[in-house]
Amino acid sequence: MDRWTIQELAEAVNAWCHERALEPANGQAASELSPRTLHYYRSSGLLDAPDSAAGPGYGRRHFLQLAAIRILQAQGFPLSRIQQLLFGRSDQELEQIAESAERTDYGTANVRPDPLVSAETWATYPVNRQIFLVAREGARLSTSQLEAIREICNSPQKQSPKTR
User: Fold this and answer.
1) I need a surface site. Which of 33, 71, 93, 134 has the fewest CB within 10 A?
2) Nearest 10 degrees: CA dihedral of 151, 152, 155, 156?
3) Can you give the residue ranges of every domain in the chain?
4) What is the distance between the alpha carbons of residues 101 and 32, in angstroms, rounded to a whole number?
């Protein structure tokens, strides 16, 4: 069983990410993990406490948690959403998430691995034959709002003098 110090764990996850060309998608996260970052993840509830306060207190679960965090960061998720997605995950689920990095090319695709697909709610509103609206996560349009949007979309377009 692998055991790491906090520095060794950061280096092991960094090497794992480099092998898979896995980098955060936006500038919100550093491209390399450091012990300081791991302490921050620990204080934020993203990373479990070490098994011991001294020496190599980090194990496979910690590695899997960090791998899952890096996978989600590569997809552009903010830490608040990552925390929601990973909270309470079992070791087996974390293993599946880590394995998903083997199947995803993060350089060419921004696709969520199957184990992370969340139950998002989407509503669609037909406006006319050419246009429909899509709303996510409980956003609902009232009948009057939808009618106002339909009226705008169905009204003849006024052209400016430059576009005639």
Assistant:
1) 134
2) -170
3) 6-116, 122-163
4) 17
